[in-house]
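Can't paste images in this forum, so I'm doing it all in text. The chain is below; anyone willing to post the predicted structure tokens underneath?
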Amino acid sequence: MKNLTTTGRVLFALPFAIFGLNHFLMVDFFTGMLNSFIPGTSFTIILTGFALIAASISIIIKKYIKLSCILLAILLLLFIITIHIPKLFAEDEVTRMVSMVALLKDTSLMGGALMIAGIYKKEENEIGIL
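Text version of the structure:
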């Protein structure tokens, strides 16, 4: 059972590292996704890339996993609020459809991050850390 949990945790974390790398390699693409009210678009994209990679590493090596997963869930919620929901009201039907898929993806990933945070909080309590 432990191998199954470890495999699931690593498989959950790896895409975030790839998403983070994409933030460095595709800055112009992500700039087009941001709304005009978000300041410092290139800086924000690169900072987000660092955050995604840091969360991925933290989850994989099991250091500060509870904190990382909670912060990751908050970051995903910010993506939903600032990027995906506004694009649901776009005039282009394809944009609306793609945004709905991205919104659902980020919602499920946010749920997964919160589950991992909850699991590790429970395990920490059982061994007397918290």
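The CA atoms of residues 10 and 60 lie 5 Å apart. The first helix runs from residue 2 to 25.
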